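Technical note accompanying the year-one report. For the benefit of new consortium partners, we illustrate the data format agreed upon in the data management plan: each record pairs a sequence with a structure-token string. No post-processing was applied to the example shown here.
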Amino acid sequence: LSSNGDAPITGYTMTYHLHPRGPYRQVSIPRHTTSYYLNDLACGQTYQAHIVANNKVGSSKPSVVVTTKTKGGKPGIPKKSLFLKPNSTYLRLNLGAWPDNDCPIDKFVIRHRPMLQPHWITTADNLRNQRKFTITGLMPATEYQLQVEGHNAAGSTLADYYFFTLTEDGEEPPPELVEKSQISLPFYYMDMKMAIPVLGTFVAILAVVCTAFVCLKRSTATIF
């Protein structure tokens, strides 16, 4: 931006905000600055910014709005072998195995339940600053379902795992027990991301059948 006649530019004002609903903030930039870095931004987020030039007469029109995204993404999902270590009566979680995707993980939410049980047991709903965590009070040679949510500034990720605890002697559960567990689960055991499409498909098929039945009934009534 150039000077305006005899009124040289005295500085710049940058206005920026977290898109789309973040609060607006401003920063003053010295007149001779050729580049400027915004610090303390949230990772994995989209920001918008524009700049105006100032002199003793006033301020220029705003520049073109620039939209950009900071580096980082929501947490990834670790491999089961790296994350879970079951014992006879407890499960050890290696939270440090969670990929943060360049955006530090703020907290974890952990819940579990024995298979064929509809209700979750919330073990931790705001777990912070821990790389290891142990779920105790489990039954030997029993299959469980585990859900863990990892949260960071970019969003959250839900991981779903199934595991067996070891026997009372610390051995792997017998193969026949594992095979027996591989049966169809009750509907309430389906993750909602899977259950909703299934319900939608069922409703759509039911609607088509009902429509065909009504049309057939009307056609029959017209003939007679």
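Partners are asked to follow this layout when depositing records. The first helix runs from residue 80 to 83.
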